[in-house]
Amino acid sequence: GKINLLYISPERLMFEHTRDLLKNINVSFFVIDEAHCISHWGHNFRSEYRQLDIIKQEFKNINVHAFTATATEQVQQDIVTQLKLEKPHIYIGNIDRPNLTYRILPR
After folding, report:
1. How far apart are CA 2 and CA 26, in angstroms?
2. Is the pTM of this model over 0.85?
3. Count of structural domains, the chain
4. What is the pLDDT of residues 55-83, one digit of tens each?
């Protein structure tokens, strides 16, 4: 059948067998969620995030989208460098979220 969305962890993507399977299906693009892990935690925590440049090495013509809500300019640049992104489009949304309400409740 047709795969509309395939969700896999960075750890699973490190298996050559997984990458070989992906090469045999029509992958439109890769999405990396919590991309700040590539910079912040990737050095020690979930080190596979630091190896995600394998996507660009093995899937040269497939776009990579990296999402995070917590990236400073330095972290953004580190993500670009670590993923070996060429001329990335960086979109920064407004931190004001009118659809969210914050309340402080007494204990």
Report:
1. 9
2. no
3. 1
4. 989 998 899 999 998 888 999 999 999 99
Tens-place pLDDT, residues 9-37: 999 999 999 999 999 988 899 999 999 98
Cα–Cα distance for residue pair 23/25, rounded to 1 Å = 6
Distances (CA, A) of 55 to 4, 22, 63, 68, 74: 19, 11, 9, 18, 22
Residue 105: which domain range? 1-107
What CATH number corresponds to the domain at position 59?
Answer: 3.40.50.300
